[in-house]
């Protein structure tokens, strides 16, 4: 006879409930998990209680006013990730079998990646695979992974600095592009025509960058690597606002080369050839899904547009 604490057979593992458990691990609270999955907190708790009974182990334990996953829960999820990946592979193969040259791929991408990478890739695919439909959703770099994990998009374009660890079993990360960062100065700035301009030459300039988020961190890290901490004179998140302030002589800014379409006539952009800071762009898919024919074609088109990584 089976002991009371013995794990149940795999046939009793419930994929939907395992997905709820994985989401709880990611979100940290039952309330946040319920919001992401469009459930009530009581329904989340009930489903996880049922899963614990099915598996014959304790999955959650009280931790103050919250709950946390037990070691048994982490063990279950470690094996469940392989199941999720295999289901993604099966779904990708089935999609290829059913759709042939057709299909739909939902892409989540940060703002500058949409015109620089996604739109040119879609144009190529319209010529080579007209039955393949690509749906685009603009999302901040970090948000793209949340959408991918929740199944709201099939492919996420993000920055490597804000990507999960390569060891994260949920995602397959694919390097796509090393995007150079140039410095934007007002057209009449004394250093606008300075030969061999270096980032350190701008150490005492007022800087314009976001108050938080990836671009703040990228600008700060690049300047610190050049030996100084930038003085933030103004804060803005969009390139239109940042470059308008540069044009008005309110400060200088680092600008990704992918944002070239947003540049203005009163702004001089200089390549920092001696420093050449870069931001690394990655594509991510749920692990196991990368071999699906439609997704593979979109990835190939993105690589062609990006060129050598």
How would you sum up this structure, described in words?
This protein is an alpha/beta fold. The chain has 3 domains: 10-81, Winged helix-like DNA-binding domain superfamily/Winged helix DNA-binding domain (Arc Repressor Mutant, subunit A), CATH 1.10.10; 101-177 and 280-306, Periplasmic binding protein-like II (D-Maltodextrin-Binding Protein, domain 2, 3-Layer(aba) Sandwich), CATH 3.40.190; 180-277, D-Maltodextrin-Binding Protein, domain 2 (3-Layer(aba) Sandwich). It has 9 helices and 11 strands. It has helices at 15-27, 30-37, 41-55, 71-99, 113-128, 141-150, 214-225, 239-247, 293-306; strands at residues 60-63, 66-69, 103-109, 132-138, 155-159, 171-186, 206-208, 231-234, 253-256, 267-270, 278-286. The strands form 3 sheets. Strands 3, 4, 5, 6, 9, 10 and 11 form a 7-stranded mixed β-sheet that branches. A hairpin with a 2-residue loop joins β1 and β2. α1 (15-27) crosses α2 (30-37), α1 (15-27) packs across α3 and α5 packs across α9.
Strand content: 15-25%
CATH architecture of the largest domain: 3-Layer(aba) Sandwich
Q: Please tell me what the overall shape is.
A: globular
How big is the Rg? Answer: 24 Å
Please state the average pLDDT score.
Answer: 86
CATH class descriptor name of the largest domain = Alpha Beta
End-to-end separation in angstroms reads: 58 Å
Please outline the helices and strands.
Elements: H1 15-27, H2 30-37, H3 41-55, E1 60-63, E2 66-69, H4 71-99, E3 103-109, H5 113-128, E4 132-138, H6 141-150, E5 155-159, E6 171-186, E7 206-208, H7 214-225, E8 231-234, H8 239-247, E9 253-256, E10 267-270, E11 278-286, H9 293-306
Parallel strand pairs: 3-4, 3-5, 7-8
Antiparallel strand pairs: 1-2, 5-11, 6-9, 6-10, 6-11
């Amino acid at each position: 006879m089976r002991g009371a604490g013995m794990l149940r057979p795999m046939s009793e593992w419930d994929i939907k409930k395992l997905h709820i458990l994985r989401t709880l691990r990611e979100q940290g609270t039952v309330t946040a998990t319920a919001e992401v999955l469009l459930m009530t907190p009581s329904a989340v708790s009930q489903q996880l209680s049922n899963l614990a009974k099915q598996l014959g182990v304790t999955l959650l334990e009280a931790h103050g006013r919250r709950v946390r996953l037990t070691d048994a829960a982490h063990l279950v999820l470690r094996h469940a990730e392989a199941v999720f990946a295999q289901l993604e592979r099966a779904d990708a193969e089935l999609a290829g079998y059913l759709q042939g040259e057709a299909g739909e791929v939902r892409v989540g991408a940060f703002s500058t990646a949409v015109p620089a990478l996604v739109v040119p890739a879609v144009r190529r695919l319209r010529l080579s695979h007209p039955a393949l439909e690509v749906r685009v959703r603009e999302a901040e770099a970090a948000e793209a992974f949340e959408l991918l994990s929740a199944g709201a998009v099939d492919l996420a374009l993000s920055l490597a600095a804000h990507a999960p660890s390569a060891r994260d079993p949920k995602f397959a990360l694919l390097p796509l592009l090393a995007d150079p960062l140039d410095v934007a100065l007002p057209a009449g700035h004394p250093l606008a025509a300075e030969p061999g301009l270096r980032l350190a030459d701008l150490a005492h300039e007022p800087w314009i960058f976001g108050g938080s988020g990836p671009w703040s961190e990228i600008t700060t890290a690049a300047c610190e690597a050049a030996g100084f901490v930038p003085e933030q004179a103004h804060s803005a998140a969009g390139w239109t606002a940042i470059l308008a302030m540069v044009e008005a002589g309110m400060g200088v800014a680092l600008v990704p080369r992918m944002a070239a379409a947003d540049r203005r006539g009163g702004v001089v952009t200089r390549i920092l050839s001696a420093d050449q800071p870069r931001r690394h762009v990655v594509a991510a898919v749920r692990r196991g899904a990368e071999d699906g024919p439609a997704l593979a074609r979109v990835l190939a088109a993105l690589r062609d547009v990006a060129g050598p990584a």
